[in-house]
Specification:
This protein is an all-alpha fold and 385 residues long. The chain has helices at 6-12, 26-30, 35-61, 65-79, 86-92, 99-112, 117-129, 150-156, 174-185, 196-207, 209-236, 240-245, 254-260, 274-277, 285-290, 297-302, 311-318, 328-344, and strands spanning 281-282, 326-327. Helix 9 (174-185) crosses helix 11 (209-236).
């Protein structure tokens, strides 16, 4: 499919989003950022990565191999969420009240996860402004298969070497990530006709050349950082170091896949109602912590300037106007059933039922904070006040 240039889309395309009305002052209160909450979430996640990585190194050095594999599995499960989850929230700039702390942790987690925060800022800005309207958002393209294929599951419970179904922005598995990082470091874009993600990256680069240049520099930093770890491992014989630092974000990706995919999979595109295009779930406290509270995903899209640790409170404030949050198992059953129907009827999309109390249109004037996406947008995509 041929798409218009994004610069033209910005000029002519607007989505009249429906957002649940809130009581006066509620949104302003919930939009407040907290350094204490930020340290608990970002600092706590980093500490978990350090603890599990240290345990893996300890058992490796003692040659206790079963314990080493178990620790490495736990380390991968925890570290996988730095790639696209911690970096997502920190990219919005809403985690810490102190702005530079958002940037410091964003770059730390991006280094660990081979993540490009610059192209992602461009991509994700479009994703929020035009959610699932392919003309302006190709970060996620429907339909997406909720795959449980045995070869893919094997990768998710070991090392994800190749790719991840459902991922449009991002570089998939470890091998493709390294290859595409090398290409990006030398300013070469991947072939647009090979994958939708490649076409989207090329469109973003044409639209935001400064962020493309920033991404080139960042890709070189990634290669230097992980290259230095590899050199140290070769010189010292500590071959476990690349497993702990460079491959960990691609190890044991099982949980990240299971909680991330339900965000949009099987739902409606080209709709101005986030309740129809986005899915919220209930998770246990530990999964929620690792996931950076993004199980409240409708709420995040509807009010993207609200810090992730306030999304559950936000849900309670607008619950009468929202669909009931799914369970993780319920979400997967819904996605799998939708996919089975889509194989027979490619145009089918699940239409999320709304409660009888839900509204379809606003009668009040929207709060100016409602359309905020935090500090996500790069300079070239910041809207005039």
């Amino acid at each position: 499919m041929t798409y218009r240039e994004l610069s033209e889309v910005r000029k002519t395309f607007r989505v009249d989003w429906y957002r649940c009305p809130t009581r006066p002052g509620t949104l302003r209160e919930l939009s407040r950022r907290s350094d204490a909450q930020g340290w608990f979430l970002a600092g706590g996640h980093l500490v978990l990565c350090i603890i599990t990585g240290s345990l893996a190194f300890h058992f490796w050095s003692r040659e206790i191999w079963l314990a080493f594999l178990a620790a490495l599995f736990c380390h991968g499960t925890v570290t996988a969420f730095v790639r696209g989850n911690s970096t997502h929230e920190l990219g919005h700039g809403t985690v810490f009240k102190t702005k530079w702390l958002n940037k410091v942790f964003l770059y730390i987690f991006s280094l660990i996860g081979w993540w490009d925060p610059f192209d992602y800022a461009s991509s994700h800005t479009y994703h929020h402004r035009y959610t699932l309207h392919p003309e302006g958002d190709r970060e996620v393209l429907l339909p997406v298969e909720p795959s449980l294929a045995s070869t893919f599951m094997l990768q998710l419970f070991t090392v994800n070497l190749l790719t991840q179904p459902g991922r449009i922005f991002g570089k998939g598995g470890f091998i493709s990530t390294v290859i595409l990082t090398v290409l990006a470091a030398f300013g070469r874009d991947p072939d647009a006709d090979k994958a939708p993600a490649n076409e989207w990256i090329r469109a973003l680069h044409r639209d935001q050349p400064q962020e493309h240049r920033n991404a080139m520099v960042w890709s070189r930093i990634l290669l230097l950082f992980h290259g230095a770890i590899l050199v140290i491992a070769v010189i010292t014989g500590l071959w476990v170091l690349p497993l702990i630092f460079s491959v960990s974000a691609f190890t044991a990706n099982w949980l990240q896949y299971f909680v991330n995919l339900p965000q949009h999979c099987g739902l409606r595109d080209d709709t101005p109602d986030f309740r129809k295009s986005v899915r919220s779930m209930k998770l246990n406290p530990f999964f929620s912590f690792l996931y950076w509270r993004m199980e409240w995903h409708i709420e995040h899209h509807m009010f993207a300037g609200v810090p992730c640790y306030n999304l559950e409170k936000l849900h309670k404030a607008v619950a009468h106007d929202m669909p009931a949050p799914r369970t993780l198992i319920g979400a997967w059953k819904e996605m799998r059933e939708t996919w089975r129907r889509q194989k027979i009827d490619p145009d089918y999309q699940y239409d999320t039922p709304l409660p009888p109390t839900a509204k379809q249109a606003r009668e009040d004037a929207p709060d100016q904070l409602e359309s905020s996406i935090g500090e996500l947008a790069p300079a070239g995509l910041q809207e005039s006040p």
